């Protein structure tokens, strides 16, 4: 059983951070390869990917919330209920398939009214299409990952995630450039020629991501079914829906899904708004946001770890230890962010240079000057955002999903989005002005979540019966 000591917390945090770092490297490589392919490809990938994922996140978040039930049942010492909670998540993942098909025309319409140049929309549509096609597999991967990590197999979960990310990088190289390869990065095209894979550009990047997700799902499913507690288990535990448990997953998972949708939706609106600016502002914003993934995606590992630890301790009815664990996850997150801030300060120019496209319509100096200002914004908001992601994960692990939903939905759509619209569309502000507004919003959020965690009302919530 997990405790609230820094040592035991690190046993959960490190594998989760490594897993998310692997995902970050995958995304980072994806963006670098697309930037080397063309400047329009890197400009189209971020808004299309975010929009497609935003449309999915409500459903995928509900399915994956079954992992919180797994953690609490594990803390309560009930392996059978852990298995049934995982099965509930898989049933919900399967239900997403028709929804994803119906979302494709909606996504195309949203891209058509985004105001982006026609040349970008042509590239955005296939990227968004494959993002939606992969939606059910994302939900399944998160559900199975939630089972493995919630039952204490965080190292195994991390290893399988790394394998999937490595496959994505290989497939990226194969599908983006085809037989031509990428001479500027010294990447030959012999692999693609051997497999008879054509050059597919941005669509190839999206297909590679989807296929790697499918691979991860297959590996996680095989490993889950071969766990000692699942060998010889009745087939009905996996096939027959546990209706009361499904209702509880939907009851607590729906607010989490709504929160994820509106939170990511607000960010998608921000990205779409920046897409209406000049080429330099759009490229610099997308590049720095891609660099920000180096900091933010691994930070999600702290959020996931906080959710697992708090869930297990709440399931074991040790609320006081759960509260300490939340704060100690934050302390470790701040140490990590201090390291990331140092990297950003010392290697600003090399980081920006990696993403510069050979056919970019702006100079290196212009990109560096604007990118440096945006990186400073990231450093400032990073320490406060650490509080946000840590306490959001911890509160979700305790079942306090409704309050998280209210805070992020109201804050995002009644404060942040209107402020960004006013700044960019009405007052004609610059990309730097928009990012400063985002800093202010993140600082306000962090203070709200700190107060929510400190008051401890979440300690009274009973997620499992």
What is shown here, in short?
Helices cover 82% and strands 0% of the residues. It is mainly alpha-helical.
List the helices and strands and how they pair.
Elements: H1 6-37, H2 39-64, H3 66-75, H4 79-112, H5 118-133, H6 135-150, H7 154-177, H8 190-195, H9 201-225, H10 236-239, H11 243-274, H12 279-315, H13 319-346, H14 348-354, H15 364-398, H16 401-426, H17 431-455
Helix pairs in contact: 1-2, 1-7, 1-12, 1-13, 2-4, 2-5, 2-6, 2-11, 2-12, 3-4, 3-6, 3-12, 4-5, 4-6, 5-9, 6-7, 6-9, 7-9, 11-16, 12-13, 12-15, 13-15, 14-15, 15-17, 16-17
Q: Whole-number average pLDDT?
A: 84
Computed structural class: mainly alpha
Flag low-confidence runs. Answer: none
From the alpha carbons, calculate the radius of gyration and give it in angstroms: 22 Å
Q: Give the N-to-C terminal Cα separation.
A: 20 Å
* Percent helix: over 70%
Relative strand content:
under 5%
How would you spell out the order of helices and strands?
HHHHHHHHHHHHHHHHH
